Amino acid sequence: MGLQSLTIFDAVKGLREKKFSAVELCRALLERIEAVEPRVHAYMTVDREGALVAAAAADKAYAEGSAGRLCGVPLAIKDNLSTKGLRTTCSSKMLEDYVPPFDATVVARLKAEGSVLLGKTNLDEFAMGSSTENSAFGPTKNPWDLGTVPGGSSGGSAAAVAADLCLGSLGSDTGGSIRQPAALCGVVGLKPTYGRVSRYGLVAFASSLDQVGPITKTVRDAALLSAVLDGYDPMDSTCVDQAVPDYQAALGQGVQGLRIGLPKEYFAEGLEPEVRVAVMAAVTRLEKLGATIVPLSLPNTAHCLSVYYLLAPAEASSNLARYDGVRYGFRAEGVSSLVPMYMKTRAQGFGPEVKRRIMLGTHALSSGYYDAYYLKAQKVRTLIKGDFDRAWEQGVDLIATPTAPAPAFAFGAKTADPLTMYLSDIFTLSANLAGVPAISVPCGYSSKGLPIGLQLLGRAFGEVDLFRAAHAYETSEAWGQKKPVL
Ligand code: GLN
């Protein structure tokens, strides 16, 4: 096994024990990227030189005894997170040449701990999509089967982890964009509680739903990254000033005594039989490990899709108003006055899905329709959150569901009908609407050898319980040890 296949935990251990240097580790990843990336297309930008400079600095820090918690660890960042001096495109023509003058808080925190940033990963344009097919620069391929999608919108970040093109990555999750690609690529993905992680420097999609989180090979690695990412940031007014618990210490606690709810609405029509079998086997395993499984109902689940696809486009239409060709980003040529310049810039700069969202959102917010659509959706959102509140009141600690209704699908299978694509998010939307944390962990493979994910949802700021249960499950099975052949 080459250095590129290490977990973050083992890489840090190896670096501390001087088994290899950060430069050697970085080179192993860059070689792997050279060999495999042309087939996977996980990256938008690979920062070869920057990574090697950071790796040399990491080796110096180890030698001087000043190494941070992630010193020398090669990571990749979704290309909707600002990186100072490094192009941040959101996989959109609109930002094709945009070089941010600042780092997102999460990026700054990773750098402050000495990590080595390999580059920026591909996504659906402005994080709108579930397959990376909406990237303006070509889709990412699923490392398990290059004819299938990696999921989205953080498809590049998930594929990069699965294909050993980085040791871990950051994604963003507005309706499932960390968890669904993690499930489809056979890796771990965590959407933290709303307010747990700073979004300063995350290009906004839907601000009441967006969260940044880790995509990793193991639950332990997700906990390691969370320890660095989580916590108050005065630059994001929605970031909550809450102490960050010792996640590593929690990992060993097991599931003994945890009550895990099984919501019947998530095991209904539309769920592929192979996914149901794998997820139910995982639930049985959790029970054997000491958890109590309780039947549950989240009666407003059926409304999640409609509520999300009103609120997210409404917020997006407002957030994306800033791409007007004036201050930064793409500007259309051949126009001599302001309004035609706006129109041509936005017509040429945005792809079809982004335009669809802007139109849906503008309509939902327009006078005469606001009450019927946007306001109504906000009220139903409160009912959805209420379902979760009641579950916790009943003494449920965690909720187990499938992450996605089916394993990875073929390219083009869902592009003709946006609604079928939206249905890929059917199980992940509720966590964003309710603001609760949720993790996806591999729980088996389909008959075609494609990964399947188990989703666990927890109380707000209850990441510790998620890590406990997901780690106990993961270490009782060997799914994570299987690798895609590339
Ligand atoms: N797939 C969902 C959408 O298209 C969620 C995207 C996300 O979480 N960023 O909106």
Structure overview:
The structure is a single chain. With 486 residues, the protein is α/β, with parallel strands linked by helices. The chain has 16 helices and eleven strands. Strands 1-3-2-4-6-5-10-11-9-7-8 form an eleven-stranded mixed β-sheet, with helices on both faces. It is globular, with a radius of gyration of 21 Å. The two termini are 14 Å apart. Bound molecules: glutamine (GLN). The site of glutamine has 13 residues, from loops.
Series of secondary-structure elements, N-terminal to C-terminal: HHEHEHEHEHEEHHEHEHHHHEHHEEH
Distinct ligands, ions and cofactors found in the model? glutamine
- Rough shape? globular
Number of helices: 16
Are there runs of 5+ residues with pLDDT below 50, and where? none
Q: Give the strand line-up of the largest sheet.
A: 1-3-2-4-6-5-10-11-9-7-8
For the terminal residues, how far apart are their CA atoms?
A: 14 Å
State the major sheet: 11 strands, mixed
**Approximately how much beta-strand content do the residues carry?**
5-15%
Structural class designation: alpha/beta
